[in-house]
Amino acid sequence: MKRIFSGVKPTGHLTLGNYIGAVRKWVEEDQHRADALFCVVDLHALTVDHDPARLRRLSRQAASLLLAAGLDPERCVLFVQSHVDEHARLSYLLECTATDGEMRRMVQYKEKAARERERGGSVRLSLLTYPVLMAADILAYGTDEVPVGDDQTQHVELTRDLAVRFNQRYGHTFTVPRATHPAVGARVMNLQDPSVKMGKSDDTGPGIVYLLDEPDTVRRKVMRAVTDSGRDVVYDREGRPGLANLLDVLAVSTGAGDPAELAAGYSSYGALKRDVADAVVELLRPVRERHAELVADPAYVDGVLRAGAERARALARPVVDRAYRAVGL
Ligand code: ADP
C-alpha cells in the first residue's frame, strides 16, 4: 500500500483554497486508497510572528476542521506535528544535507521574507529553514506521495533532492516521494486579487473564503469577486484569471469536472457568481455543521490526536533512528 503524508499550517483559519487544493482530495480519495497520515504542522507556524494562545486555538481548530471535512481516524492517522519529536530530530540531519544556497532560492521564502521586511519586521531563521522541516515531515514516514496544492511543488522537489543526496552519501535510507495535485483547483486565487493565491496567512480578508464563514459572508465575498471588464464568460486562465478562478471553484464545488465546459452555460457574470456562491455555501455547509458538533466534544478530538501521535511516532521512530545511524551518530 502506498504511504501518503500531507499537512496544514495553523497560521490562520483554513480557507477554501486549502479545502479545494488539498483537504477535499485527502478526504475523498487519499484516505481510501493509501496508508495516509495528515498533520497539523504547528512547528511551521512559528516561522512568522505568532501569539502562543492563538496558535494553540488554531491548531485545535485545524484538527477539528479536518475531522469535520471527513478525515476518518479509522482510515488515516491525524496528528499534531509537535506531538511527535521525530520531525525536529530529522530536520537537523537534513539541515546538514541541504545548502544555504538552495534554501535561499525557495520562492516562498523570498516572497515571505520580502513582505516581512517591508513591514519593518525581522525574518526568523526558521522561515529560511522551513522547507527542510517540511522535508523531514515527509521523509520520516517513508512517504511515496504528497498530495498538495501547486504552491508546494518546489518544496516537494527540494524534499526529493535531499532524499536522493542523503541516500547517495549515506546509503539507502529514505523513500523518494512525489507531489500529487488535484486535476482542477490546485491553485485557488484570492477573489479580490486573482494574481495571488488564496492563502490563509495573507491579511486580505475580503478575497478569502474561510471554511467557517457564514453563508451570507460567503455570498458577499463571491458576489464582490474581481473579474474584469469583459462580458462574455470564457475560460482563460492567463487572460481572464478572476473568471477562470470562479469557474474552477464552481467545477470543483458541484463536481461538474471541466470548468471550460461550464463556461459555455453562462451569458453573464452575475448568474455565474450566484451559482458559485450557492455551490460554495452547499460545499461548506456540512463541514461547518460537523465542526460545531466537534467543538462541543473536545475530549473526542483530544483522543483522536493522542492516538494519532502514538501511531505516527511508531512509524517515524525507526526511520529517523536509521538516519541517525547512517550519518555516524
Ligand atoms: P496556507 O498557504 O493557506 O497557509 P498551507 O501551507 O497550510 O496553506 O497549505 C495546506 C495545503 O493547502 C497545502 O497542500 C497547500 O498547497 C494547499 N493550499 C493552500 N492554499 C491554496 C490555494 N490557494 N489553492 C490551492 N491549494 C492551496
From TrEMBL:
ATP binds at K9, P10, T11, G17, N18, G149, D150, D151, V188, K197, M198, G199, K200, S201. It is found in: Cytoplasm. Keywords: Aminoacyl-tRNA synthetase, ATP-binding, Cytoplasm, Ligase, Nucleotide-binding, Protein biosynthesis. A motif ('HIGH' region) lies at residues 10-18. It catalyses: tRNA(Trp) + L-tryptophan + ATP = L-tryptophyl-tRNA(Trp) + AMP + diphosphate + H(+). One of its GO terms (biological process) is tryptophanyl-tRNA aminoacylation. One of its GO terms (molecular function) is tryptophan-tRNA ligase activity. Its main location: cytoplasm. Belongs to the class-I aminoacyl-tRNA synthetase family. HAMAP family: Trp_tRNA_synth_B. Catalyzes the attachment of tryptophan to tRNA(Trp). This is Tryptophan--tRNA ligase.
